[in-house]
């Protein structure tokens, strides 16, 4: 008999399975939040400017000091929060490793973690691999909000943490002030708020980011997680970070040192120089404006195809109602139209009927790619309509 680790996830990630399927069918991959173009030029320039010495060796496990202090500066500037880069910031291999380390630092056997569904695919396996279990608060429609009473009802004496995602993949909005209050209220019961803010720089309406650092006062009861992946179109750089109080940071670092030790030092230094540059806020604002134009164009193209769709306020995920079972639609569309999208059901641990016909398109692609996807959807749509023999 082959021994199996109880905590090992059984199923393949949708972000492994669907991109491979898309490649096999020559489909345009709108299923995955990955860019189809290079990163921000400033990152490449910073990388090219690196020397040939110690910047190619291990950084301190907590993160290169230049990057930790650039992050502290950015938090002061953008969120008005003072954090100590030596004791409160840890650099990780993307938000992905950050989540794993934070959950590993907080959760053990017998502990529960509240997830608010739709929830990013990684959260539940991270909790299970730490020996914990999850309890879900489920939002059942795109316009639904986190209700304070419903949230309080999923918390038990075993609840160690709640994971929220703001701005929210796939809902395309941040938590509003009332939702933040409901979440922050749980800290009175000792629950730690883990806030995944990976999409914080993609506010398409130009409004400032509001995150956990503003919502929860006690630094030992809050963790902010973020990364360069989405802000700078650099998902392959794998540079992320955590921000938490000194004691919590000590525990996060204790996990991180034995997982990856540190992300690549050259990339940390390049990111530090870009985050610290005076024109970075304007560069990010320009990126958000450009993204908005692509998102709006794609949404109106979907409307033209008769698919009701909503433009996100944050991020680059467009939700559309395909009017039939979304899993079946996605399976068929990847093969027949050669366009890959993601059914909303992958963000839920149980079926939610109002979401059953909703799909998510990742619109972080060049205009040509989006135009090609629309062209394929339109021609497939027309073919199906003309070959359909029933009313
Ligand atoms: N959290 C959410 C909500 C995401 O959508 C993603 C994917 N970008 C991640 C975390 C992982 O981000 P990273 O590339 O920084 O590991
Ligand atoms: N976060 C991305 C998404 O939701 C994908 C992450 C990945 O591909 N690992 O599409």
Question: Would you mind describing this structure in some detail?
Answer:
The strands form three sheets. The chain has a seven-stranded mixed sheet, sandwiched between helices. Strands 9-10-13-12 form a four-stranded antiparallel sheet, with helices on one face. The chain has a two-stranded parallel sheet with strand order 1-11. It is built from 13 helices and 13 strands. By secondary structure, the protein is an alpha/beta fold. Helix 3 runs parallel beside helix 10, helix 4 crosses helix 9 (246-259) and helix 6 packs parallel to helix 7. It starts with 13 loop residues before the first helix and ends with a helix. 4'-deoxy-4'-aminopyridoxal-5'-phosphate binds next to helix 4.
Q: What name does CATH use for the topology of the largest domain?
A: Aspartate Aminotransferase, domain 2
What's the number of structural domains? 2
Bound molecules: 4'-deoxy-4'-aminopyridoxal-5'-phosphate, glutamine
**CATH architectural name of the largest domain:** 3-Layer(aba) Sandwich
Q: Please report the first level of CATH classification, the CATH class of the largest domain.
A: Alpha Beta
So what's the overall shape?
A: globular
Could you tell me the number of beta strands?
13
